[in-house]
Write a structure and sequence with these properties.
This protein is α+β, with helices and mostly antiparallel strands. It has one domain: TATA-Binding Protein, CATH 3.30.310.80. Helices cover 40% and strands 34% of the residues. Helix 2 packs across helix 3 (111-129). The longest helix is centred in the first third of the chain and has 19 residues, at 2-20.
């Protein structure tokens, strides 16, 4: 009986270590974050340029596809993340569009993706605050 308990404890420990090492997490999007600037009447172009500056500084390729929309692409080693950044004078959103080699399954993605999006969000906030 004592051996059986040890086996169960060992199995539990292995499962705990395995679960802690998982690299998959629910996908992180940024919905309708407020545009906060020191400039009282920042226009759409100002907001777009701040978003492009933030992404470019972090290694993203930021392409304005139309007023109010930017396509951001990040390539790191064999990984690629693509996001849509929709923005107005009052808010912006960062939404998953596509990826390569990030194990996206329709709901979950490699946890590093979420860190990249959180960094992009912080960068955008910082650039907007400089307006």
């Amino acid at each position: 009986m004592r051996s059986f308990n040890r086996v169960l404890m060992f199995a539990g420990l292995v499962l705990t270590v395995f679960a802690a090492g998982c690299t998959i997490a629910p996908i992180y999007n940024v919905p309708n974050a407020p545009v906060s600037t020191s400039k009282p009447n920042a226009n759409l172009d100002d907001v777009g340029k701040a978003i492009v500056r933030a992404g470019t500084a972090l290694g993203w390729n930021m392409q304005v596809t139309k007023p109010g929309q930017i396509l951001g692409t990040l390539n790191l080693r064999s990984h690629e993340a693509i996001v849509d950044v929709n923005y107005s004078q009052t808010s912006y959103s960062i939404n998953y569009k596509d990826s390569k080699n990030l194990n996206y399954d329709g709901t979950n993605i490699h946890k590093n993706y979420n860190g990249w999006i959180q960094n992009l969000d912080r960068g955008i906030k910082a650039q907007l605050s400089l307006l």
